[in-house]
Amino acid sequence: MVLDIIFLMLISSTSHVSANSTTVLPAAAAACSNGECQLRDECSTDRDCAAGLYCLSCPLEFRGSRCVRSTISDPFKLLNNSLPFNKYAFLTTHNSFAIRGEPSHTGVPRFTPANQEDTVTQQLNHGVRALMLDTYEFKDGIWLCHSFKGKCHDFTAFEPAMDTLKEIKAFMSANPSEILTLILEDHVEAPYELSRLFRSSGLDKYWFPVSKMPRDGQDWPLVKDMVANNQRLIVFTSDRSKQETERIAYQWNFMVETQCECFLFSCCFHLWIGL
Ligand SMILES: *[C@@H]1O[C@H](CO)[C@@H](O)[C@H](O)[C@H]1NC(C)=O
Ligand SMILES: *[C@@H]1O[C@H](CO)[C@@H](O)[C@H](O)[C@H]1NC(C)=O
């Protein structure tokens, strides 16, 4: 997660960046396990670390894996939930599905970069509120995948999109005041396949309709109303035509992107909702 996070900012001069970052400090190694590892101790699984800590590898900061602390601030509690949605900022993961250690689901070893250490469920539990997912037609369905020459292959595929949508659904039903945003790099060409996927995942019941999305720089609805209406899932596609045909919002009708600065595979940029 640390390698590849961005903040989803919402257009407003008073946006509040409220997701707190993981605290990572280098320290000497210590042999420990079973919940005895303290902050910065080396670890191999979350269970090694004491309460409130988890085991993270972050090659840009340190070698191996260490217990780190993550402090999560819920923007709707930090302020209140009576402002328009575009007044809050959210932690977003880029290539949220490209998770280190995800087993191969194709029987072929994967040969493509991983971007995240946390599973999607862990990302959401750690405060991430927007996920960037790359959707491809692959095998007999829709998969989350990196591409090679524009196509998903056995050696670049991460997992069937349905598996991730089920994790998202579980989080949304367990957390009825949370609003999630999905930003799809959408390579699904077959008409209505993506809509069908969301319907069969059961996530369509949380769908925030494109007809309620503001145009011409107006504010979004209030967070408390989105929660009360249970319209808590915002989905954007990179495929312009699908807003007209499938009522999935075309991202560049509602977002702008600031200049991207890249370091190795890690790009730091901001997306703004509210165009
Ligand atoms: C972020 O975490 C630090 C250290 O735990 C804490 O002092 C600070 O209040 C937190 N900030 C927010 C906005 O929650
Ligand atoms: C919510 O927070 C905003 C910003 O601090 C404030 O202006 C507004 O009065 C608050 N609304 C409620 C209902 O507390």
From TrEMBL:
<dbReference type="InterPro" id="IPR017946">
    <property type="entry name" value="PLC-like_Pdiesterase_TIM-brl"/>
</dbReference>
<keyword id="KW-0732">Signal</keyword>
<feature type="signal peptide">
    <location>
        <begin position="1"/>
        <end position="19"/>
    </location>
</feature>
<dbReference type="Pfam" id="PF26178">
    <property type="entry name" value="PI-PLC_cat"/>
</dbReference>
<dbReference type="GO" id="GO:0006629">
    <property type="term" value="P:lipid metabolic process"/>
</dbReference>
<dbReference type="GO" id="GO:0008081">
    <property type="term" value="F:phosphoric diester hydrolase activity"/>
</dbReference>
<dbReference type="InterPro" id="IPR051057">
    <property type="entry name" value="PI-PLC_domain"/>
</dbReference>
<protein>
    <submittedName>
        <fullName>Uncharacterized protein</fullName>
    </submittedName>
</protein>
